[in-house]
Amino acid sequence: MKMIIHIFFTLSFVSSISFASVQDFCVADPKGPQSPSGYSCKNPDQVTENDFAFSGLGKAGNTSNIIKAAVTPAFAPAFAGTNGLGVSMARLDLASGGVIPLHTHPGASEVLVVVQGTICAGFISSANKVYLKTLEKGDSMVFPQGLLHFQLNSGKGPALAFVAFGSSSPGLQILSFALFANDLPSELVEATTFLSDAEVKKLKGVLGGTN
Q1: Which of 37-41, 51-55, 166-170 shows the lowest mean pLDDT across its residues?
Q2: pTM here?
Q3: pLDDT, tens digit, for every residue of 2-39?
Q4: Of residues 149 and 9, which shows the higher confidence score?
Q5: What keywords is this UniProt entry annotated with (predicted)?
Q6: Mean pLDDT across the stretch 31-57?
Q7: What span, in angstroms and rounded, lies between the C-alpha atoms of 148 and 140?
């Protein structure tokens, strides 16, 4: 029995270290090949403290666009030190009436915290149930990985929020852009969305789609 217990604890110890990181970090090398697990590692001799710092979130983004909003990402490789660590951030600036349209992050869940203004945020589960909440300064909300979600400035002035992701490269697909900002044939969009030809062509015209 003692031998079995000894073997059990030995295997448990080996198992616990076999999945541990074999190095402290893997700073992204944008010039190297990229794999599903992330960017290749920069030569450790070339890594500096600057790779672990990012100053881009301190400046407001340009909201003079169709959605009246701006997203400033701090993902790998721009924030090179996050590569492989399972974390990243972004800044959301929303002018009055601004919106981050329905979108998904296939690679990570998201946590949002409101710093200024009022934001109506929500997501839709795979069972098509809607979870909707009006968030004020200091409020937070989580958006599960891969689910459609959005943020809308529902206040009277500008809104600001910061988000954190459980991946250094969470990915992004905006639903309206996926349907109307490319060359997917209009008849297929009409057939799969039940929109009229006029509606599809109008949306393609607004978002730059063709065909």
Answers
A1: 37-41
A2: 0.83
A3: 544 444 444 344 344 434 466 899 999 988 888 777 89
A4: 149
A5: Apoplast, Disulfide bond, Glycoprotein, Manganese, Metal-binding, Secreted, Signal
A6: 90
A7: 17
Amino acid letter, 199? E
For 66-171, which CATH class? mainly beta
Q: State phi, psi for 105 to the nearest 5 degrees.
A: -120, 100
Please name which of 104, 71, 101, 102 lies closest in space to residue 89, comparing C-alpha atoms.
Answer: 71
Residue type, 151: Q
Measured in whole angstroms, the distance separating CA 176 from the mean position of its chain's CA atoms is 16
Residue 44 token pair: 């450790």
The DSSP letter of residue 196 is -
Q: Which residues are annotated as a binding site for oxalate?
A: 105, 110
The pLDDT score that the predictor gives to residue 13 is: 42
Helix (H, G, I), strand (E, B) or coil at 26: coil
* Structure tokens given for 150: 């959005």
The ranges of the chain annotated as CATH 2.60.120.10 are: 66-171
Annotated binding site: 103, 105, 110, 149
Using CA atoms of 57, 158, 117, 121 in order, give the dihedral in degrees to the nearest 10. -80
DSSP 8-state class, residue 28: B
What lies within 8 Å, CB to CB, of 211 at 6+ separation is 183, 184, 185, 186
> Under DSSP, is residue 39 helix (H, G, I), strand (E, B) or coil?
strand
Binding residues for Mn(2+): 103, 105, 110, 149
